[in-house]
Amino acid sequence: MRLVVMLGKCKQPEKARELFQAMSDEGCVVNHEAYTAILSAYSRSGLFDKAFYLLEEMKDTPMCHPDVQNYWILIKSCLQVFAFDRVGFFLSDMAS
């Protein structure tokens, strides 16, 4: 999963996601760090819909539930593009 994290940090979210999915399909354990790296890469690359979908996927994955850091990544990205309506959604989602 370290390679997934590195690809995510190098702003290659699609490659990171492909590797992540391939490893998951082969039975590798999915971890929170890999999800966070891909979420961050999607957000930095302006792929917000994919980032939001990934957040929902995290909620359904045991031991990978979104934390404050994950929400902060998304909130910060929304603020940068003036998507204030989504910020409210994330704040309320985080509270529940």
Automatic annotation (TrEMBL):
<keyword id="KW-0677">Repeat</keyword>
<dbReference type="GO" id="GO:0003729">
    <property type="term" value="F:mRNA binding"/>
</dbReference>
<comment type="similarity">
    <text>Belongs to the PPR family. P subfamily.</text>
</comment>
<feature type="repeat" description="PPR">
    <location>
        <begin position="31"/>
        <end position="61"/>
    </location>
</feature>
<dbReference type="InterPro" id="IPR002885">
    <property type="entry name" value="PPR_rpt"/>
</dbReference>
<dbReference type="Pfam" id="PF13041">
    <property type="entry name" value="PPR_2"/>
</dbReference>
<dbReference type="Pfam" id="PF01535">
    <property type="entry name" value="PPR"/>
</dbReference>
<protein>
    <recommendedName>
        <fullName>Pentatricopeptide repeat-containing protein</fullName>
    </recommendedName>
</protein>
<dbReference type="InterPro" id="IPR011990">
    <property type="entry name" value="TPR-like_helical_dom_sf"/>
</dbReference>
<dbReference type="InterPro" id="IPR044179">
    <property type="entry name" value="PPR5-like"/>
</dbReference>
